[in-house]
């Protein structure tokens, strides 16, 4: 068991790794899911926030703990600052967990495993495309991001016998995300069984008690919300599985290569972890092996449940949510095993060093190729260059040490590595991913200022059925009749959401999403007047190009490059 205290340099590695991940992932504010998950916190902060918005005030917001976290962040200071600070805090916690896991798996060689894992997460961005397109480390503040950071740190602390802290962090993971709670339950049970005999009753209870208390809060909310639910009927399932979220619930939407790659890598990583455990027989390694194997089993059973629709409730809970945990543990084990491959030769030290360079570079470059598919030109060189730099520098340092050649601290390999990685992460994250500097924004962002400045504060907008227009709620502070992105969880509310979308698009009965968009292109004055009568709509937004409906009789009040806004009479 590796419970040695961390020195100052270790904490510097944690901070450095966190900076690399933050820059590599990108800096975000009001990005993607945040437009939905921030609404509860903003409502808690301001009872007068968007009083006419149906989704904000008349649907059940299912990430309650995250809503209160956002309320607290909004209380402390401007959200643009506090959310980024909270994200950095979570990244520090994640890197702390990665360090503890690396020390458990690799012992004295933990730095290579840690930095290689940071590279895979930050620069290769592998977890952006995991099972069902569910984010594990997305890079911006949302419930799954909070839950994943707590999960990694919780498992790491459990492996080093810090039971109370592990219980609190694991409990917080389930508190912030119900799907993590469901898929974590078997993992927690297995870990407790694996270590119960060695730990004794007191330590086992010190782990399980905070888990039970914190999870109980989320379970209580779920049961309360479910009490008001109508039955989970086929119409509800069709809307959820086949219309709104087939990319989450329909396995046929997932690339076969992605599924095969996940299981191949997770299984190979499990074998590598087993090899390390059989050599060292440390309890911490047994814990990580049990966690990895259990998460693979849970993921497999969850996917089978989806494929055959074994149980509707299980399917709705996304039971494969922690699948990437096995991927991460397997990745770290594989890096360590590949790192040691050069030691199996009796050749000269130069050959051994070259073996290390090949092994370390191979595993990292393979991950980069999988993540980026087929990058081209200068960006390809940069991406693969950073992936190869870590093992090359470490191997070079090892070889030079054997030859008696040393660098002065100011010219150390670590310093060169730090500067290079930070530069590569900044290039990738800030240039290609971030939205904090007005890049990577949807077209509808051009409407925010005109809507804020030219429409009444109590306006209720009709918007096209795409995800882009969700930006108008928080950024422009205007209510929407309905939008495609913000999706409720209670069956009766999902049916209401679908009815509103059908009325907006002039669709009756079931139809694919593209039919809804075509229907919206036929929006005319009569339909707009009907939406005013049914839902209090005051304005309608249409595309500048391609709209076919007759809008005569309505006053055009805003015109931008891509959109026009009309006032409903």
- The fraction of residues in strands falls at under 5%
In the sheet with the most strands, the strands line up as 2-1-3-5-4
Shape: globular
Structural class computed from helices and strand pairing: mainly alpha
Write the H/E string, N to C: HHHHHHHHHHHHHHHHHHHHHEHEHHHEEE
Number of helices: 25
Average residue-wise pLDDT = 81
Let me know the number of strands: 5
Task: Give the CA-CA distance, first to last residue.
Answer: 73 Å
Helix content: 55-70%
Over all CA atoms, what is the radius of gyration?
A: 26 Å
Q: Which features characterize this protein?
A:
five-stranded mixed sheet; mainly alpha; 569 residues; 66% helix
Task: Give a written overview of the molecule.
Helices cover 66% and strands 4% of the residues. Helix 1 runs parallel beside helix 7. Strands 2-1-3-5-4 form a five-stranded mixed beta sheet, with helices on one face.
How are the SSEs placed, and which strands pair?
Elements (H helix, E strand, L loop, with lengths): L7 H18 L8 H4 L1 H7 L8 H5 L5 H13 L2 H28 L3 H15 L18 H17 L3 H14 L1 H22 L1 H27 L6 H11 L1 H4 L6 H25 L2 H26 L3 H5 L6 H17 L9 H24 L4 H26 L10 H20 L15 H7 L5 E3 L8 H4 L4 E2 L10 H15 L7 H9 L3 H11 L3 E5 L11 E5 L3 E5 L2
Parallel strand pairs: 1-2, 1-3
Antiparallel strand pairs: 3-5, 4-5
Helix pairs in contact: 1-6, 1-7, 1-20, 3-5, 5-6, 6-7, 6-8, 6-17, 7-17, 7-18, 7-19, 8-9, 8-15, 9-10, 9-11, 10-11, 10-15, 12-23, 14-15, 14-17, 15-17, 17-18, 18-19, 19-20, 23-24
């Amino acid at each position: 068991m590796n419970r040695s205290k961390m020195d100052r340099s270790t904490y510097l590695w944690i901070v450095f790794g966190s900076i690399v991940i933050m820059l590599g992932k990108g800096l975000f504010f009001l990005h993607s899911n945040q437009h939905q998950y921030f609404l509860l916190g903003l409502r808690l902060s301001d009872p007068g926030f968007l009083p006419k918005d149906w989704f904000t005030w008349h649907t059940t917001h299912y990430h309650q703990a995250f809503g209160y976290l956002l309320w607290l962040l909004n209380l402390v200071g401007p959200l643009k600052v506090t959310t980024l600070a909270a994200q950095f805090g979570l990244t520090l916690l994640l890197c702390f967990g990665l360090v503890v896991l690396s020390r458990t798996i690799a012992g004295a060689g933990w730095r290579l495993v840690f930095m290689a894992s940071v590279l895979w997460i930050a620069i290769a961005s592998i977890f952006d495309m995991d099972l069902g397109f569910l984010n594990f480390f997305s890079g911006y503040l949302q419930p799954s991001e909070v839950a994943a950071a707590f999960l990694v740190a919780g498992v790491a602390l459990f492996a080093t016998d810090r039971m109370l802290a592990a219980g609190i962090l694991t409990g917080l993971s389930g508190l912030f995300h119900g799907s993590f709670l469901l898929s974590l339950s078997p993992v927690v049970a297995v870990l407790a069984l694996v270590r119960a005999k060695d730990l004794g009753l007191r330590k086992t209870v010190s782990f399980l008690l905070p888990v039970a208390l914190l999870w109980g809060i989320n379970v209580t909310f779920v049961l309360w919300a479910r009490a008001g639910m109508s039955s989970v009927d086929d119409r509800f399932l069709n809307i959820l599985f086949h219309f709104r979220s087939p990319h989450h619930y329909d396995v046929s939407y997932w690339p076969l290569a992605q599924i095969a790659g996940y299981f191949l890598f997770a299984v190979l990583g499990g074998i590598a972890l087993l090899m390390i455990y059989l050599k060292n027989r440390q309890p911490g390694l047994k814990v990580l092996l049990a966690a990895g194997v259990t998460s693979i089993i849970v993921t497999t059973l969850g996917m089978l449940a989806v494929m055959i629709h074994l149980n509707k409730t299980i399917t709705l809970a996304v039971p494969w949510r922690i699948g990437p945990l096995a991927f991460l543990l397997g990745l770290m084990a594989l890096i360590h095993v590949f790192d040691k491959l050069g030691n199996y030769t009796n050749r000269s030290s130069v050959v051994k060093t070259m073996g290390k360079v090949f092994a370390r570079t191979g595993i990292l470059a393979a991950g980069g190729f999988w993540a980026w598919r087929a990058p081209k030109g200068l960006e390809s060189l940069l991406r693969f260059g950073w992936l190869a730099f870590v093992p090359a520098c470490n191997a070079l340092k090892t070889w030079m040490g054997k030859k008696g050649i040393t660098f002065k601290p100011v010219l150390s390999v670590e310093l060169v590595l730090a500067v290079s990685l930070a530069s590569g992460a900044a290039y990738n994250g800030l240039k290609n991913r971030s939205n904090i500097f007005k890049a990577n924004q949807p077209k509808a962002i051009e409407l925010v200022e005109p809507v804020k400045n030219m429409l009444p504060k109590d306006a209720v907008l009709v918007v096209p059925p795409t995800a882009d227009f969700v930006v108008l709620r928080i950024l422009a502070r205007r209510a929407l009749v309905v939008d495609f992105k913000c999706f409720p969880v209670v069956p009766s509310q999902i049916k209401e959401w679908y009815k509103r979308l059908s009325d907006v698009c002039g669709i009756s009965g079931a139809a694919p999403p593209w039919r809804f968009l075509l229907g919206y292109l036929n929006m005319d004055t009569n339909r707009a007047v009907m939406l005013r009568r049914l839902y209090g709509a005051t304005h309608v937004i249409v595309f500048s190009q391609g709209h076919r409906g007759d809008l005569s009789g309505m006053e055009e009040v805003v015109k931008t490059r891509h959109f026009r806004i009309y006032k409903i009479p």
